[in-house]
Amino acid sequence: MLEHIGITVNRKKDIEAFYKGVLGLKEIHTFEVAEEESEKLFGIKGGALVTLLARGNFRMEVFLTRRKQRPAYNHLCISVRDRESLIAKADALGYSMTKLARQSKESLVFLKDGSGNTFEIKSR
Question: Beta strand 76-80 with 97-100: parallel, antiparallel or unpaired?
């Protein structure tokens, strides 16, 4: 069973605006991963401030660091009851979004936070 996911961001303001404001996650607490732990666990030099967020049974650890993301196919898919409302919030805050129309299905919507993390948004 999936317990939580960890994701890296480069901009502190995204924790408030994107993860709390757009995705509706609530902050549980923050903690720090020390330099020694970071290198042993992840092979990354330097520590990170981590914010634990939750919504229902879903938990996300958001690691704040200066390390930039490289383009990748990695993405998280989330389903929401009111997809259009979430899209409107993200658009109003200036987050990058790609929409691809499909004939027989709901359009594909991919949303990026300010650090380049990608989220596929589906209707529940």
Answer: unpaired
| Confidence (pTM) | 0.87
- The one-letter amino acid code at 108 reads L
CA 44, 38, 41, 49 dihedral sign is: negative
For residue 112, the tally of other CB atoms under 10 A from its CB is 17
- Walk along the chain (124 residues) and give the pLDDT tens digit of each residue: 678 999 999 999 999 999 999 999 999 999 999 999 999 998 888 889 999 999 999 999 999 998 887 878 899 999 999 999 999 999 999 999 999 999 989 999 999 999 999 999 999 8
